[in-house]
Amino acid sequence: MATFQILNFGCRASQADGAAIKKQLLESGLQEVEDVAASEVAILNTCTVTSRADAEVRQLVRRIHRANPRCRILVTGCYAQRSPSEIAQLGGVTWVVGNSHKHVIAQLLTSRDVVAPLVGAQGQPQGLPLRTQTSLVQIRPLESTRTPSNEGADHYSPALWSWPKSPPQATVLVGEISEEFHFAPVFPDDRTRPTLKVQDGCNARCSFCVIPSVRGRSRSLAPAKVLEQVRELERSGYKEVVLSGINLGSYGRDLDRRITFLSLLERLLNETAIARLRISSIEPMDVTPSLIKLAAGEARLAQHFHIPLQSGCSRILRLMNRRYWPSQYAERIHAIREQIPNAGIGADVMVGFPGETDPDHAASASFIESQPFTYLHIFPYSARPQTPAAASPQQVNGRVAHERANEIRALLARKRQAFLKAQVGCRLSALTLDEAHNGDRVSLSSNYLKIVLAGSNFPPNSLVDVRIGRVHEGLLFGFADQR
Description:
Elements: E1 3-8, H1 12-27, E2 31-32, E3 41-46, H2 51-67, E4 72-77, H3 78-82, H4 84-88, E5 93-98, H5 105-110, E6 130-131, H6 134-137, E7 145-148, E8 154-157, E9 171-173, E10 195-197, E11 199-200, H7 211-215, E12 219-220, H8 223-235, E13 240-244, H9 261-271, E14 276-279, H10 289-297, E15 304-306, H11 314-320, H12 326-339, E16 344-351, H13 358-370, E17 375-380, H14 398-422, E18 427-437, E19 440-445, E20 450-453, E21 463-472, E22 475-482
Parallel strand pairs: 1-2, 1-3, 3-4, 4-5, 5-9, 10-13, 13-14, 15-16, 16-17, 20-22
Antiparallel strand pairs: 6-8, 7-8, 11-12, 18-19, 18-21, 19-20, 21-22
């Protein structure tokens, strides 16, 4: 039995894809192992949001190849879709599979002995071509050839990329992103909080972002399928499901104008008994008054909003091609705080965007200081190839961007500490995690706070009511009663 190891990078949607790949491989008869030294195939499900994300993948490829030269490495995901030629030149890489073909990885690995490369030394395709299914008909691998089979169906034999040098040993499957929604049903690869990807792709064109080109246009999982998956997860014993997507607020627009993310939430709450739903991330203009009202009145919706900001400066938001002003963003945040006073509110913040001046940064920092954020994901701008921002002549010095990030982190630390102290004496609903701190169970509250349960013996995946006793070194400590 062939063995594999899968390593996931990036957002929750990518994590959900990785879990689905794992499910397909297990169902195909492959065996998962934890030690790369014992693995015949290593699958790297990648992110490409930043240059650092790309570099981490390349470093890991080299590390795996050194530790286990016999291991065949398959690189998939967003980085594979964006730059297959770069990855295929790395030693040890046998397959590069873009998001366009990610859903046929199990078929690829089981169509022949995984120990043998599928492309010979001269770059000529070998072995059996991938059998075309409905989900593949609209996918056109770059420079592919199509031949009819004896059964009258189509087959695709992936042709090699146009290489600047001699062709590598890697097989490359990268093409246009299908309009179909892949990877359902969900595979819960988390003992406590499985992620259900209900939307993929993005139609926005932020000037810094490469994701639309590697994920394709926005597309949604049909509401009936979402309901089916949530019910299945509930039957399996899960208490919390995280709803994820690349642009979650655009859910349903490709299906029917009457289908919205809000209507999906309402159906899930009315037609399933899942104990808690959590929204992973949602764009500012999709945080509508109706959505806030629903979250305020429904205990089964986590009191947690992650709303990407990127910058608190109007001029920079325009350069980023973001579709809101800071004042509009603030209206949403304050409406949440007004109706859900103890909500966890987080955001993504970018510093050092091309053209960002000291006054621009000061304006952004001042805006962030004025908002009731409880956490932030802060990162320096990273130029992504073939995006408008990367072509700007006004690139910000890396040292300056690093200093600006540290300034935002310092002001956030003060806000975070104040929020944690305000929790002392409160009772919070929380879910126990498969995680411990000095032997004590760790839980995650509805408002997205880690809480150490002193002396607790609750198993993972238990809903508990926690009385917060103290804050110590950035952690909450409390005592729990099971619901």
